[in-house]
Amino acid sequence: MGAVVVDDGPAGVKAPDGGWGWAVLFGCFVITGFSYAFPKAMSVFFKELIREFHVGYSDTAWISSILLAMLYGTGPLCSVCVNRWGCRPVMLVGGLFASLGMILASFATNIIQVYLTAGVITGLGLALNFQPSLIMLNRYFNVRRPLANGLAAAGSPVFLCALSPLGQILQPLYGWRGGFLILGGLLLNCCVCGALMRPLDPPKKPAASQGTSEKPPKKKLLDFSVFRDRGFLIYTIAASIMVLGLFVPPVFVVSYAKDLKYEDTKSAALLTILGFIDIFARPICGIVAGFKWVRPRCVYLFSFAMLFNGFTDLMGSMAYNYGGLVVFCIFFGISYGMVGALQFEVLMAIVGTQKFSSAIGLVLLMEALAVLIGPPGAGKLLDATHKYMYVFLLAGTEVVTSSVVLAVGNACCIKKATQTKEDAAEREGLNKPPGDAKVDSIEVEHFLKGEKNGEVVTNPETCV
């Protein structure tokens, strides 16, 4: 195969915003679909696993929990691998891991082996695909990046609507072992998506400079300097609080309907409604976020999406019939799609291309802790109160709190500091004598990159 090309986003390479970028977008769409829909689609086989291994429902539910924990918790590991070997090799290995885990799980003789294979190995494989695909999407799109993020995020509801019925077809025909084997074969498509992630070519050096060879600067495997960025800190805190309650309503809405004495098929249809609305909400939100007036204020649109989602949860707590739950699922699908389309777009705008590979890994690690706490904590509250109203109230309060943290933190801590630095720079420029009008090219380059005295200055166009 030759030498591995480390696609670390070389400086001076302009994002094509099209061309091969559409193939990268398609690969990211498929990867996002597998990563988020696969843990939920696994629940189709839980009853068969309970009969086979004589375990309880809570034991089988750990499979999906381990998958999600691996997807979020291995973020720093993925960042190190991408910074060391590049996106394409990491994704190819990840696709093999994801497929191998499901194939090995089809030969499992106890539930622990299913945890290790379908949970740990497949979860690690999906993680090694999900994060690099977002990094490549960030490098191939700049002007059209909000739209690209919205279209890629739509893979989650599309694949959920496809994988769940597929599992229901495979389970009676081939059993859970045959179903796992076929799903393992489908996951090999992650390798195809990885092959689409072609690194961007660095700019060609002039003929005069080709004779002098310079050693490239050593790249950090995990850049912790992002924690010095107050915008990144505020985003991480807000996202961690949001994840505590974001995934709770989809987990409990079907049980909520069953508790209101509605039949199983009618209750399960609520998730179908939610997913169908979600499919259209994500790309539409991506289009809106790309408008010239909206994009510089994208962080506030993200904050509004979280506020909308939390308010929907609070109103959903007062639903006492099936019609009320349908209305809740419609509005939740809209707000959930907005959050899904904007969460990584805002992070890309905060940290930029160079630090995004490290930033997303650290953010996903923080969110992993919240994912493990959120739904189980809501379940304990339900066991204590036996009322779904309190579960939805808790989830709504957590998501609303996260929106307030993001909006207030951006308005008070980030934008004010940026304006102060700009005013000081302007005063300094006005006080300069005319003879100092000539500026060194290196200083101009540092100004364009947003650096001052070695410190990164926040870009006012992104607000955060």
Structure explained in plain terms:
The protein has helices at 21-41, 46-53, 57-73, 75-85, 87-105, 111-140, 145-153, 155-186, 189-195, 230-246, 248-259, 264-289, 298-316, 322-385, 388-430, 441-449; strands at 451-452, 455-456. The chain is globular, with a radius of gyration of 24 Å. Helices cover 74% and strands 1% of the residues.
The gist of it:
With 464 residues, the chain is an all-alpha fold. The protein has 16 helices and two strands.
Key features?
464 residues, mainly alpha, two-stranded antiparallel ribbon, 74% helix
Classify the secondary structure makeup into a structural class. Answer: mainly alpha
Q: In percent, how helical is the residue content?
A: over 70%
| N-to-C order of helices and strands | HHHHHHHHHHHHHHHHEE
Radius of gyration: 24 Å
Mean pLDDT: 80
Shape: globular
Most strands sheet: 2 strands, antiparallel
**Cα distance spanning the termini:** 42 Å
How many strands in all?
Answer: 2
Quote the beta fraction. under 5%
How are strands sequenced across the largest beta sheet?
1-2
Low-confidence stretches: 1-8, 416-464
Number of helices: 16
Task: Describe the secondary-structure layout.
Blueprint: H1 21-41, H2 46-53, H3 57-73, H4 75-85, H5 87-105, H6 111-140, H7 145-153, H8 155-186, H9 189-195, H10 230-246, H11 248-259, H12 264-289, H13 298-316, H14 322-385, H15 388-430, H16 441-449, E1 451-452, E2 455-456
Antiparallel strand pairs: 1-2
